[in-house]
User: Which sequence fits this backbone?
């Protein structure tokens, strides 16, 4: 189990009604790390068909098509998506307009980085209210 999977397990225990999703941007970037430069645009376009699909069933069909097309050259990409599939399909529970906003977790990560930096420079807080004011 990785640090991320431990964090997901702990978050799921603390927030049982929360939806856990993977960052699509990070998954795509990870996938493109396996590609030759000349194939990156084509692979990215085919991956876009997966996460841009209107439903999770259509996305699964697109993943199958992707695997059929690219498995010979880039055998590790489709299995990486399948390993994260539970977190990928959570994305399809949302309206397409919302998906455009949440397909990446970069905004959340940026906010967390700013909060961590502020906390690190201040050390501790006398009250919970003082910590809340920081945010």
Assistant:
């Amino acid at each position: 189990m990785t640090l991320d999977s431990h964090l997901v397990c702990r978050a799921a225990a603390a927030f049982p009604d929360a939806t856990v999703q993977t960052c699509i941007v990070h998954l795509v970037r990870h996938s493109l790390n396996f590609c030759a430069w000349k194939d990156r645009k084509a692979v990215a376009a085919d991956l876009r068909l997966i996460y841009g699909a209107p439903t999770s069933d259509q996305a699964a069909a697109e993943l199958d098509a992707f695997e059929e097309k690219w498995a010979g050259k880039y055998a590790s990409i489709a299995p990486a998506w399948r390993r994260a599939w539970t977190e990928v399909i959570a994305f399809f529970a949302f309206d397409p307009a919302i998906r455009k906003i949440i397909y990446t977790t970069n905004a959340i990560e940026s906010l967390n980085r700013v909060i961590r930096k502020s906390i690190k420079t201040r050390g501790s807080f006398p009250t919970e209210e003082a910590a809340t004011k920081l945010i």
Q: What stands out?
A: The radius of gyration is 18 Å. The chain has a mean pLDDT of 84.
